[in-house]
Every structure is written in structure tokens, then in C-alpha cells.
Amino acid sequence: MVEWCGSYLDEYRGDRGGSGSKEGRSGQRWTPPGANQVKINVDAGVKQGGHCSGLGCVARDRAGVVRYAAATVVQQALPPLQLELMAICRGLQLGIQQRYEQFSIESDCLQAVNLIQKKEDGCRDIDGLLHQIRSLMCHVNFVGISFVFREANRVAHELANYALVHKASAIWIGVIPPCAHQAVLIDEPNPV
């Protein structure tokens, strides 16, 4: 077990000899997708002992323009991994529903990304959700899913926290969500 935990931490740090620390990651930012692609960042917000959770999702193009953003409140307490998987599922559904020519998903939950990519065995309570995600990933316009550190997932994180704190859901189409405005600015090529 200790050996597994050590290898899990090494993978989380990206095998960069400790650059997984917050100090080493502070300069990381969101990176734009390839030409004619949309990148969808997702996150979940969980408050221990709370009776609700939040999901955040933002779709941006190569220029960093917010095409779609959502903060969704989940009116029940669920395990963090299940919520992160729900956020990924919502991101996939968004890409398909919006008919993006090509889209990818980024999440700051390494365990969820590994489970989806079959690097780890699933648990019975999330197997149905994993199956749904893997089915959605078969869509012709889906490019891939990847893990990023939270510093490169700021906007989705802010949206998930908005839903969690305000216990409200909201959608923004073609505009920057006011609750994540600063995070979007930080991600621009010449941040404020």
C-alpha cells in the first residue's frame, strides 16, 4: 500500500522531482487547444459536511474566448471522486450538444482521469458513471482527456465554487462569467 501511494504521488507530481508542490506549480496556466478545437475544463467543489456540491465547466477556443460556462449545484452530498466524474461527464455532454468540431476535456482530478483511461480499477458505486463517460468518449469529435494541475484549471474551479457557495446554478454563453472573470484574465496570453 505504501509503495502504491508513493508511485501515485510521483505520477501526480509528473515525475519532476517535487515540482508537484504548490510553489513549483504556481506558474502553470491554462494552455489553448489546437487549431479548430475547443478545450473544456471541468471541476467539482465539495464542502465537507455540506449537503450540496458544485460542478464547474468552461469551454474555450484557441483564442481563449469563453464559448460556454456553467456552474451547477448538486443538491446532495456525494463522494468527491463521483462528483469529479460527474463534471467530466457533463463536459463531454456539453461538447457533443454544442456540436464542437473537435473538443478535449481537462480535469484536475488525476484519480478520475486514470480511472477513465483504465489505469486503475473502478469501484462498484461509480462503474455506471465510468461506462457512460467511456461511451461518450467514443463520439467522433472527442479528441482526448487529460489531467492538469488546479493552477491550469482555475476557471472551472471558480465556477464549481460559485455553485457550492451560492447554492445556485447558472449558464453563460459567449460571455465571461462574472464570478470567474479574474481567473479568465489570468489565463490570457498577456495576463493582468
Q: What's this entry about, in short?
A:
The N terminus is likely disordered. The chain has a six-stranded mixed beta sheet with strand order 5-4-1-2-3-6.
Share of helical residues: 25-40%
CATH superfamily: Ribonuclease H-like superfamily/Ribonuclease H
In whole angstroms, the N-to-C terminal distance is 44 Å
Cα Rg: 16 Å
Order of helices and strands: HHEEEHEHHEHEH
* Number of discrete domains: 1
Q: In this structure, how is the largest beta sheet organized?
A: 6 strands, mixed
Which strand order does the major sheet show?
Answer: 5-4-1-2-3-6
Strand content: 15-25%
CATH C-level label: Alpha Beta
Question: How many strand elements?
Answer: 6
List keywords for this structure.
192 residues; alpha/beta; six-stranded mixed β-sheet; 6 strands; disordered N terminus
Please characterize this protein's 3D structure.
With 192 residues, the protein is α/β, with parallel strands linked by helices. It has a single domain, classed as 2-Layer Sandwich (Nucleotidyltransferase, domain 5), CATH 3.30.420.10. The protein is built from seven helices and six strands; from the N terminus they run H-H-E-E-E-H-E-H-H-E-H-E-H. It has a six-stranded mixed beta sheet. Helix 3 (80-97) runs parallel beside helix 5. The radius of gyration is 16 Å and the shape is globular. The model is unreliable at 1-19 (pLDDT under 50).
